[in-house]
Amino acid sequence: MFANVGWGEMLVLVVLGLVILGPERLPGAIRWTGGALRQARDYVTNATDQLRDEIGPEFEDLRAPLSELQKLRGMTPRAALTRHLLDGDDSLFSAVGALAAEPRPMPPAPVALPEPGVPAPFDTDAT
């Protein structure tokens, strides 16, 4: 649940807790939050165990597609292309990266704009 929360974010939360709750109530709030998370985790574990008991061996058949979805969930577009379309060969991306790093020719010089107050040329055949 909190896999993406690093030490920096935790420090910000503690500082915010100190500012909002104060040093007297912060330890109790942390204890309460920890207990609530532990209780929620226990509920989920008990529900999973109950489903496993009721469904039986078919429970693992249900978990296999879910675990495959979990693997795909964290995959970047580049990794998905490499894995499924290119069979793991990412040399195409390194070749494209090398082409992008090559110097490019200068674009042509910009066209001069007419002076202010002079009407722009008008082509009656083009409209």
UniProtKB/TrEMBL annotation:
Keywords: Cell membrane, Membrane, Protein transport, Translocation, Transmembrane, Transmembrane helix, Transport. Its main location: membrane. One of its GO terms (molecular function) is protein transmembrane transporter activity. GO terms for cellular component: TAT protein transport complex. GO terms for biological process: protein transport by the Tat complex. The keyword ATP-binding does not apply. Residues 104-127 are annotated as: Disordered. It is found in: Cell membrane; Membrane. Residues 104-119 have a biased composition (Pro residues). The chain crosses the membrane at residues 6-23. It is a single-pass membrane protein. The Tat system comprises two distinct complexes: a TatABC complex, containing multiple copies of TatA, TatB and TatC subunits, and a separate TatA complex, containing only TatA subunits. Substrates initially bind to the TatABC complex, which probably triggers association of the separate TatA complex to form the active translocon. Belongs to the TatB family. Part of the twin-arginine translocation (Tat) system that transports large folded proteins containing a characteristic twin-arginine motif in their signal peptide across membranes. Together with TatC, TatB is part of a receptor directly interacting with Tat signal peptides. TatB may form an oligomeric binding site that transiently accommodates folded Tat precursor proteins before their translocation. NCBIfam families: tatB. This is Sec-independent protein translocase protein TatB. It comes from Mycolicibacter minnesotensis. The lineage of its organism: Bacteria, Bacillati, Actinomycetota, Actinomycetes, Mycobacteriales. The gene is tatB.
